[in-house]
Amino acid sequence: MKRSLDIVGSAAGLAVLWPLLLALALLVRLDSPGPALHWSSRFGRNNQLFLMPKFRTMRLEAPDVATEALPDPDHWITPTGRWLRRTSLDELPQLWSILTGRMSLVGPRPALHSQDDLIALRTRAGVHVLRPGLTGWAQINGRDAIDLSRKVELDADYLARRSLGFDIMVLLVTLRRAFTGRDVVH
Q1: Backbone dihedral angles phi then psi of residue 111, each to the nearest 5 degrees
Q2: pLDDT tens digit sequence for 133-149
Q3: How far is 64 from 113, CA to CA, in rounded Å?
Q4: Measured in whole angstroms, how far is the alpha carbon of residue 1 from the centre of its chain?
Q5: Residue 186: pLDDT above 50?
Q6: Could you tell me the pTM of the whole model?
Q7: What gap in Å lies between CA 120 and CA 57, rounded to an integer?
Q8: Is the CB of residue 128 less than 8 Å from the CB of residue 46?
Q9: Per DSSP, which regions of 37-146 are E strands?
Q10: What gap in Å lies between CA 162 and CA 87, rounded to an integer?
Q11: Residue 45 and residue 132: Cα distance in Å, rounded?
């Protein structure tokens, strides 16, 4: 049932949002040189690497590490990128990853290839068996404002509580929070 929701939700999202996706891609291109999309190497289900698309929010020469690992993140984030991140619109291209089965609408956010600590904690907690999500239980309970161990606790809680109803609740809360920018640090 979850995969069916993912397919229907991502296909509907792409069909309805394509004008917005096109406009955002143009905005990214006008704001700074380079491609509109950034394909980030991420760990997915069972710790398998995959390429995840996002609207590019950083300058091309930015190091490929988690934003919080940068000494001066604001130096690397573009003006449009700051707005895209605050509204979470930079995540919309991941609808493609959901449609193709690499991601789910709801699950733990996919870890960057450089986040060995997060990958190890998730593997220890058994969370690595889940398909990563566009949003998740940890995202609506702190997102960037909580530390890695708390994120993994929330991911493990999601693993134990997952259901169609729980996923729908997480999606509804995510939509509300996306418009407020709550808990977005970078």
Answers
A1: -75, 145
A2: 999 999 999 877 888 99
A3: 9
A4: 22
A5: no
A6: 0.88
A7: 27
A8: yes
A9: 37-43, 49-55, 104-106, 111-112, 133-135
A10: 26
A11: 6
